[in-house]
Amino acid sequence: MADMKIRYEELLARRKGEPPLPTAVVHPCSEDALVGAVEAAKAGLIAPLLVGPKEQIGKIAAKSNIDLSPYEIVATADAEESASVAANLAGNGKAGALMKGSLHTDQYMHAVLQRENRLRTSRLLSHCMLIAAPAYSRSIIVSDAAVNIAPDLDQKRDIVQNAIILARAIGISKPKVAILAAIETVNSKMQATLDAAVLAKMADRRQIVGGIVDGPLDLDIAVDKEAARIKGVETPVAGEADILIAPNIEAGNMMYKELTFMAGAQAAGLVMGARVPVILTSRADTPQARLFSCALAVLVAAATAKDPSLLHPILGE
């Protein structure tokens, strides 16, 4: 078992002594959602604003022996209103992050996308999962595993840029990006290879900035230098990928779930491309995954507050 370069306990440790991030917790109307928010608050990561039906939240808290007195509750009628109110709080600067509770992802993301909530940037929203697997020496960002179903080339450009911004926010100064496909050569019958090759050239032309981008690469080359040597592929990304860009949502989703459910990997998930970090976890995620996602959100918020240009990379220069 190799030592991980970034373990998520280190994410927690890096925030010690820093003030908690005001975070709108959207509709925490299940035990897992409420406990996850409260544990993050007890860890000193967030100052939760619990946005949802007050009576329902109270009943869950009583059942779970949770003291709600330290936390503010913003009363709403239902999940749709919870999402709208929380997004508005973030857009108005009263919350520095959003955290998904027990509502459907489409309701949650719909509120983030509404222009009146002022959370959108010029880029597409995309999901990034930071993963640390016990048997692998590097932590890796996988994208997109949860939001964009079948992204086209322009959308993939934003997905790559968002992942680079996340990597830089957590301290990787020049992240290496592997655009994945089933093979490492361009094949006109495989759209993923064509997109990968164009994305690599777009990075050469500074239409994507801040990282080293190469593709198409199959997964083994991206994560193993020996595989690249055997296959005769020369790339600075070989065996050193910080970011893996999946060709579609099925590939990304399966990759991260295989790692977490079958290989014991730790994971933290964020939606990038908005003005604030948007914490998006699966209903099946563990309380630990929710806690680590909060830690990741807090680090991203701190980094972008210190250097706002991270959110608005200058292309083409």
Task: Describe the model.
It is a single chain. The chain starts with 7 loop residues before the first helix and ends in an 11-residue tail after the last helix. The longest helix has 20 residues, at 287-306. The protein has 2 domains: 9-120 and 274-308, Rossmann fold, CATH 3.40.50; 124-272, Isopropylmalate Dehydrogenase. Helix 2 crosses helix 11 and helix 4 (79-91) packs parallel to helix 5 (105-113). It has helices at residues 8-13, 31-42, 54-63, 79-91, 105-113, 153-169, 191-204, 219-223, 225-231, 249-262, 287-306; strands at 21-26, 46-52, 72-75, 97-100, 126-132, 140-143, 176-180, 212-217, 243-245, 266-272, 278-279. The protein is of the alpha/beta class and 317 residues long.
Any idea what the shape is?
globular
CATH topology of the largest domain: Isopropylmalate Dehydrogenase
SS-based class: alpha/beta
Main sheet: which strands, in order across?
3-2-1-4-11-10-5-6-9-7-8
The biggest sheet amounts to: 11 strands, mixed
Range of strand content: 15-25%
Tell me the name of the CATH class of the largest domain. Answer: Alpha Beta
Order of helices and strands: HEHEHEHEHEEHEHEHHEHEEH
* Spans of at least 5 consecutive residues with low confidence: 1-6
Please give the share of residues in helix.
40-55%
Radius of gyration: 19 Å
What is the arithmetic mean of pLDDT?
91
Give the tally of β-strands: 11
Task: Count structural domains.
Answer: 2
List keywords for this structure.
317 residues, alpha/beta, Rossmann fold, Isopropylmalate Dehydrogenase, 40% helix
